[in-house]
Known about the structure:
The protein has one domain (13-261): Vaccinia Virus protein VP39 (Rossmann fold). By secondary structure, it is an alpha/beta fold. Helix content is 39%, strand content 15%. It has eleven helices and eight strands. This is S-adenosyl methyltransferase.
Amino acid sequence: MPSIDLQPDRPHSARIYDYLLGGKDNFEADRAAAREMLKHTPNLAISMRANRRFMGKVGVYLAANGIRQFLDVGTGLPTHPNLHESVQGVAPDASVVYVDNDPLVLTHARALLTPVGTGRVAYLDADLRRPDDILRSPDVTAFDLSQPVALTLIAVLQHITDDEQVLDIIARLTRPLASGSAIAISSVTVENDPDGGPGTVRTYNQNGVPVVARNRAGVEALFAGFELVEPGVVPVHHWRPGEEDKQVSDRDVYMYGAVAIKP
């Protein structure tokens, strides 16, 4: 098997995320970038945990409402609970295809993303910026596109800094999906922390990890043509909050999130 270049000298968003969540699948370059971010937003890990809970809540909600096919683009490193664990905990027959293009994610995904139900769990090494490659992959063409699919884009679209490119990616990924399909998005904001938040965004960019912060209206625009599910675009801990979410301060959450349905 050919060796994989993990580029340990370059920070990567998935590995920074892993470090801030207490994981061990990261390198010193990732840790150094994360420490610089924490100077600006000391409670950044709180936001990341809230975002992880949002992903789980979305999976449970959509599975409970009948969706059995999930396409998760920008998966990141496996961290409990993974999307398929939330989804298959409700609907054991549901299928989940994960997509990412980080070689470290690839090395772990094949070993860790195993079904907890009877449904299929697959991992695709592909780039969000090339949606047609994703749609043409055998793992995705195995979906029954006459039935709804949930497209989840959790904490990934902030790395595509051009809004027109983001809208094009969303349009191309959702065009072949049936009516009743869903799209779930979470994306970075600094509206709640205009003092520290921009410093963290700047640190990402200075370390070669493109990030853009969007305001609420900017995130709402990403759902154009879809019907937002209540409560619409909100800080992720306010989306159908559980008890842990209710203990979190709004100032400590730097992500907007929402779910919408394709008419």
